[in-house]
Write a structure and sequence with these properties.
- By secondary structure, the protein is an all-alpha fold.
- It folds into two domains: 48 residues; 108 residues, no CATH class.
- Helices cover 83% and strands 0% of the residues.
């Protein structure tokens, strides 16, 4: 064999090897596409997680929306690295605190309205305007106000106790976290009077 023939044969072997390697890489990429997820993908996944979705639900949603092949372990890995679980616990705590604050604000508003009526009644009595003033109505109104003021603290304690019991009961149940969050959202919307 001549040197030119040797070179052609070596080149042919090299070309065959290159083609084999290319085929293997292409096949591997088809089996395991190396997708690079953007920061926006991670942020969207985090928002869904904080709303109560499970890892598999988040992966399914992102896969449907963006035609990815993301696995739930990817979402779980992001969650573990970025501390999403702690954020979710803070949100749950904030929801309970918000519920309590709404109940307290509602009670304060009622007390304020009763006091306003009582003050107006007192003013009318002082000015002796209105022949229909009845002392027993004033006494009843004052008694109501006193009872509400005395009960307000008990009601605040009761709301805190109810919220604590709900949190413990939900923690003891063996139901998905998304269902627990759905319950809390529904509970808060009922407290707000939205339904």
């Amino acid at each position: 064999m001549s040197k030119d023939e040797d070179r052609r044969e070596a080149t042919a072997l090299t070309d065959d090897r290159r083609e084999t390697i290319r085929a293997a890489v292409t096949q591997d990429q088809e089996k395991h596409p190396a997708q690079k997820y953007t920061l926006a993908d991670k942020q969207e996944a985090m928002e869904l997680f904080l709303k109560g979705y499970s890892y598999s639900d988040i992966a399914t949603k992102l896969n449907e929306r963006y035609d990815y092949t993301m696995h739930q372990r990817t979402i779980q890995s992001w969650s573990n690295r970025m501390g999403w679980g702690e954020m979710r616990q803070e949100i749950e705590h904030d929801l309970v605190a918000e519920s309590k604050d709404r109940v307290v604000a509602s009670l304060k508003k009622q007390l304020s309205e009763i006091e306003e009526v009582r003050q107006e009644f007192l003013e009318r009595m002082r000015n002796k305007s209105g022949a229909q003033l009845r002392a027993h109505e004033f006494a009843k109104l004052t008694d109501m106000l006193n009872k509400l003021q005395g009960v307000q603290e008990e009601k605040e304690e009761l709301v805190a106790h109810i919220n604590e019991c709900i949190q413990r009961a939900l923690a003891d149940l063996n139901i998905p976290r998304s269902k627990k969050h759905e319950f809390l959202r529904r509970y808060i919307s009922l407290l707000k009077g939205e339904d």
